[in-house]
Amino acid sequence: MLISKMAAEGGGKEMNEIKTQFTTREGVYKLLTHSEYSRPNRVPFNSQGSNPVKVSFVNVNDQSGNGDRICFNVGRELYFYIYKGVRKAADLSKPIDKRIYKGTQPTCHDFNTLSATAESVSLLVGFSAGQVQLIDPIKKETSKLFNEERLIDKTRVTCVKWVPGSENLFLVAHSSGNMYLYNVEHVCGTTAPHYQLLKQGENYTVHTCKSKSTRNPLLKWTVGEGALNEFAFSPDGKFLACVSQDGFLRVFNFDSVELHGTMKSYFGGLLCVCWSPDGKYIVTGGEDDLVTVWSFLDCRVIARGHGHKSWVSVVAFDPYTTSVEESDPVEFSGSDEDFQDQIHFGRDRANSTQSRLSKRNSTDSRPVSVTYRFGSVGQDTQLCLWDLTEDILFPHLPLSRTRTHTNVMNATSPPAGSGGTNTGSNGNNSITSTPGNSIPPQLPRSNSLPHSAVANANSKSSVMDSAIASGVSKFATLSLHDRKDRHHEKDHKRNHSMGHITSKSSDKLNLVTKTKMDPAKTLGTTLCPRMEDVPLLEPLICKKIAHERLTVLIFLEDCLVTACQEGFVCTWARPGKVGLLSSQNQANSPSGTVV
Amino acid sequence: MEILMTVSKIASICTMGANASALEKEIGPEQFPVNEHYFGLVNFGNTCYCNSVLQALYFCRPFREKVLAYKSQPRKKENLLTCLADLFHSIATQKKKVGVIPPKKFITRLRKENELFDNYMQQDAHEFLNYLLNTIADILQEEKKQEKQNGRLPNGNLDSENNNSQPEPTWVHEIFQGTLTNETRCLTCETVSSKDEDFLDLSVDVEQNTSITHCLRGFSNTETLCSEYKYYCEECRSKQEAHKRMKVKKLPMILALHLKRFKYMDQLHRYTKLSYRVVFPLELRLFNTSGDATNPERLYDLVAVVVHCGSGPNRGHYIAIVKSHDFWLLFDDDIVEKIDAQAIEEFYGLTSEISKTSESGYILFYQSRD
């Protein structure tokens, strides 16, 4: 134990140089120096006290096959370029659009992937003083400004995203801890909005905007305490994961504004969040220097990972390296030819993926062999890659037994009699099924079981459902498409709640009321298990790749993209993808390097 | 935020009175905590090292309460603790909520008692903190001893008479003292021996672009004792190679963390400042605890930070940022400002290696939530 630790440290000492390539089991990833995007003068940006550099991509479905566009902010500037990826060197002399702002700085941005064409894209930009701008960097237009008078929120925009499947709705989070749903078609009004309570939940509230004519914001969410640092929609667009400075992950059903589950960091704020491509897992990163893997179905922490030497600023799943054995691996890699789909799957496509997976799970009592790949970057200037393997996803008995000893609150622990014996037979044993493993066939009926907590939970949620349904129709902006989905959604949701009816719905209810908000008391509960009660992952690789803290990590089909606070956006070719550039690069290099 | 900054900047240019009322206005009469006083301390010539530590300690509530309780005890001969108690008492009993106080008596006493501080040079804030806490502990221990010898202590019976060998812990120890366990494993016979030592604060090495969590992990990294540093193993009865590591066995109520930002450069014959960016969260748990620690998962809240501004230990300036009733204040000698919690990130340090001057966290005070 000690010796292995020593060895690891020895490696750490030599790591002060900046890596330009690294090797994983799938091969060598190489930094493409000619594909570096930055401000045209390539001068490092003095980043002290500035907003993080962020990157957004869009594919405009250009016939030429060169449809990728990149947007990034550096300081008070915002750039929009053609992104040539691993194919060609970056040409920084010709940004398609460049904007310099005064008095307020861009903090984040998001393209609408549904409406993007070669002639027009809708880019939302959030600002440090709270405003949100809708611009078209191809037409070079500024179509709209939201929260212009800062009447809605005066604090920094921390995250802005289009609602998946919508061309009009978008969600904006602020460092005030509030989040607002806007419709691009509506105005913001000339007075501060009046709100009406729609939903009061455990440490969150949702208000509708009270006015005669429909105006922005449509909804105001107040989530937790302190800044809301990031949010992410589930791949099917139905759930919303939020991470806050109070250290909590909160997962909501977006349409019904119901809280699905909660997690607390080991300590400190949570800074970033992402979903696995199939929507089954959420990964967070935060001020405890850890990445934390949370099971959506079981609402519990299944692993933590330690590799970073400082706060984790971005986590992202790699949908192209994630694989499910015994099934068509193309399911993950092939369905995402549009790289932005890792953030926004189309609703229908994602549904099909998910249902296929869950169908297999429900018929096969034995877990399929699953490996998820995710990455993280942090303020330590390091990139870490992580594998989430079968033994972590479906822990075998020894681990669950230790868990029953140490974690008194954990209701997943089987009753005393059956504790040691459910190894192979859990297909029929709904009470003791391994968390996240299989949904036994008889479960649909368990909805009507006279289990009081379950019954309460269900009746409550259905009441809320109808309440929200009427609320939703008021702002009448959810497309027909969404309404059609409503039936589906019910089934979908019931499926999910079923996942934890067996394991912990009653437990969860107790916990929430008992533990309230004191983070010190969440330790040892499912909200925040002790360090020794969950597996601790080690990174596959952990490399220092920049001088400045890293702020971006995006997995594309041919490459991964990182960016640091100095304003350099780097492209790392995946194994075997590097030749594309070097062969073409001979001719192109002058334009790429001499600027 | 920008507006707030401008307001406070204007305020600092104005007279002290205007500054004080500006702070009061900024906090607002409804929000202003009852029985709380925010008083700047006059600088008596490079005494900001002292002012910043005193403010930080004043906002370590358990410490403040004990000092004020000491003040209410029968009058004693003047010493550094009575001077501190007078100063704290004078802040706590001000009619006004905000203002400025000259800590004259305390500074005079400090200069009288220790020649190190008896000049107008800039001193190291950590050295001062150490000196102050140890001096208070000594005073308290001496008083206890006196009381026992005078037979005034009712429970001064035989079984606690062995206090000559082991001084009794004082409230300074109750608040700040933790225990490190020093585990040494002989690489020949694998025997582990452990030795405990107490600490009032932990001095941790800093690295560029890391967190205080990482620096604390580094503090407990395993060292190999070899060649001239071999370890004498009792079991082997000879010098052997060994692995040594220090872990926290008893977690203190207030964890004071000193970031070792001043490094002696042999070539330059002087100290240079490491302005590294070391982030510190508002909430902290320790990873470097020993297996037999009693409360290894204690959750800490950041309550105060002594910030060093400038390029070296004996130059530059010290300020303190403290948390009081859910908001943050910046004490810069006689100036007191309310700051946004998000502004704390300005005190993490610098990522650029070129610039040596920075405003960076130097001593962190974390208070246990239980």
Automatic annotation (TrEMBL), chain A:
Region described as Disordered: spans on this chain: 346-366, 407-453, 481-502
Residue spans of biased composition, Basic residues class: 484-497
Residue ranges with Low complexity bias: 423-437
Places the protein is found: Cytoplasm; Nucleus
Cellular component annotations (GO), alphabetically ordered: cytoplasm; nucleus
Main localization, broad class: cytoplasm
SMART domains, A to Z: WD40 (SM00320)
The entry's keywords: Acetylation, Cytoplasm, Nucleus, Phosphoprotein, Repeat, WD repeat
WD repeats: 263-295
Source superkingdom: Eukaryota
Keyword flag Transcription: no
Subunit-level organization: Interacts with USP12; promotes translocation of USP12/WDR20 to the plasma membrane. Component of the USP12/WDR20/WDR48 deubiquitinating complex. Interacts with USP46; contributes to the cytoplasmic localization of the USP46/WDR20 complex. Component of the USP12/DMWD/WDR48 deubiquitinating complex.
Name assigned to this protein: WD repeat-containing protein 20
Species, as recorded: Erpetoichthys calabaricus (Rope fish)
GN (gene name): WDR20
TrEMBL record, chain B:
UniProt EC number: 3.4.19.12
One annotated GO biological process: protein deubiquitination
Source species, domain of life: Eukaryota
GO cellular component labels: cytosol; nucleus
Keywords: Hydrolase, Metal-binding, Protease, Thiol protease, Ubl conjugation pathway, Zinc
Sample GO molecular function, one term: cysteine-type deubiquitinase activity
Reaction(s) this enzyme catalyzes, per UniProt: Thiol-dependent hydrolysis of ester, thioester, amide, peptide and isopeptide bonds formed by the C-terminal Gly of ubiquitin (a 76-residue protein attached to proteins as an intracellular targeting signal)
Pfam families: UCH
Region (Disordered) residue spans: 145-168
InterPro entries associated with the record: Papain-like_cys_pep_sf, Peptidase_C19, Peptidase_C19_UCH, USP, USP_CS
Regions of compositional bias (Polar residues) in chain numbering: 157-168
The keyword Hydrolase belongs to this UniProt entry's keyword annotation: yes
Residues of the USP domain: 39-369
Complex and partners: Interacts with WDR48.
Family statement: Belongs to the peptidase C19 family. USP12/USP46 subfamily.
Name the record gives this protein: ubiquitinyl hydrolase 1
UniProt lineage: Eukaryota, Metazoa, Chordata, Craniata, Vertebrata
Gene that produces this protein: USP12
